[in-house]
Amino acid sequence: MNICEPDVQNYFGEKGIKWQYIVKRTAWWGGYWEQMVQITKIALRKILGRPLISFEELQMILAEIEAITNSRPLTYVYNEPNEPFPLSPSNFLTGRRVNALPNWSGKRNIELFYL
Asked: How far apart are CA 34 and CA 26, in angstroms?
């Protein structure tokens, strides 16, 4: 799949997705986002290798990568059970601690549960 293909461009157009290019590796110009993109790409390469998959399978894999990425700790992780839970991006996105991956129904054209 290539982002220049008409089907991909039509899908992006329907969803209102617009490309914004940012300078790499600078915290004030989007270095943080570039790191998240790199984490996602590395996970995709390790999971997929080179096989062809369906769009639904790609959605499921990306949702799992998103859940794992957003549950990573941002603060110190204590060994004691009575100590506070570490903060993660999911705490800021949902206001709670997220432990489970989103349920996958396997239906076409479903809206993903974004953490």
From this structure: 9
